[in-house]
From TrEMBL:
Coiled coil: none annotated. This is hydroxymethylpyrimidine kinase. Keywords: Kinase, Transferase. InterPro entries: HMP/HMP-P_kinase_dom, PM/HMP-P_kinase-1, Ribokinase-like. CDD domains: HMPP_kinase (cd01169). It comes from the Bacteria. SUPFAM superfamilies: Ribokinase-like. PANTHER family: HYDROXYMETHYLPYRIMIDINE_PHOSPHOMETHYLPYRIMIDINE KINASE THI20-RELATED, PHOSPHOMETHYLPYRIMIDINE KINASE. Pfam families: Phos_pyr_kin. Gene3D superfamilies: 3.40.1190.20. It is an enzyme of class 2 (transferase). Pathway: Cofactor biosynthesis; thiamine diphosphate biosynthesis. Residues 15-245 form the Pyridoxamine kinase/Phosphomethylpyrimidine kinase domain.
Length: 256
């Protein structure tokens, strides 16, 4: 008999192209050997190259979706993506922690759609600190790090965020032959590099990375190992074809 899979929950937007948001997250989690559950925070009108509009799901409706899952399933690993506002994000995190104090929460700060649509202005620093102090990990790319905490360089902003929670600063927007991510933890710095692919740009790659990391945490890996394996999963996703919508492959090391 296959070993029962741990559960992991994504709380994010619905992308009809299935390249980003809850559909992409569940695909990545399932392919990584975890059973993916989902709650929707927004209905978007988009495809892999165009974003037209978003309709937000209210906090009470998000909570209702999640509450029925929490009654039935043991959920300790949660990822939050696109959400209406940072005050809503903080309220949601506090509500989740009241139900499950041991929950490990990853926030993938979706601040701007690939097609250019902007979701959030620069947040209040005190609000941002309150959010980050509840997180197991935040996964900004370089422009997002600067949006969250304006600084001379993304690395400086990430280091400031790391005073509040672990930070995985994604290097996909940098130049060079390698895409280098940096995991910043208290007094520890891990560098994760992979070759930059010639046609590796994919819609939703940040969603996939954070979901793959969450899956590895649910499977029992340490945070540095989860980030390493999540990046490896994402590299395979980026190299899966020459289109903007990547393919998810079932991991070969899970007999379930």
């Amino acid at each position: 008999m296959p070993t029962p899979r741990p559960y992991a929950l994504t709380i994010a937007g619905f992308d009809p192209s299935a390249g980003a948001g809850v559909l992409a997250d569940v695909k990545a989690m399932e392919a990584s050997g975890v059973y993916g559950l989902a709650a929707c925070t927004a209905l978007t009108v988009q495809n892999d190259v165009a974003f037209e509009r978003v309709s937000w799901v209210g906090l009470a409706d998000i909570q209702d979706q999640i509450q029925l899952l929490l009654v039935r399933f043991s959920i300790r690993f949660i990822k939050i993506g696109l959400i209406e506002s940072l005050p809503v994000l903080l309220a949601l995190i506090q509500w989740l922690k009241a139900y499950q104090p041991a929950a490990r929460i990853i926030w993938d700060p979706v601040l701007k759609a690939t097609a250019g649509y902007e979701f959030h202005a620069q947040p209040d620093a005190a609000l941002l600190q309150a959010i980050c102090c509840e997180l197991a990990l935040i996964t900004p790319n370089q422009p997002e790090a600067l949006r969250l905490l304006p600084a001379a360089r993304p690395e400086v902003a990430a280091a400031a965020l790391a005073a509040w929670c672990p930070v995985l600063l994604k290097g996909g927007h940098a130049e060079g032959d390698f895409a280098t991510d940096v995991l910043l933890m208290p007094e520890v710095r891990h560098t994760l590099a992979s070759p930059r692919l010639p046609r590796g740009e994919k819609h939703g790659s940040g969603c996939v990375l954070s979901a793959a990391i969450l899956a590895r945490l649910a499977l029992g890996d340490s945070l540095p190992e989860a980030c390493r394996l999540g990046k490896a999963y994402t590299a395979a996703f980026l190299g899966s074809n020459d289109t903007r919508l990547g393919y998810h492959s079932i991991a070969k090391n899970h007999d379930n």
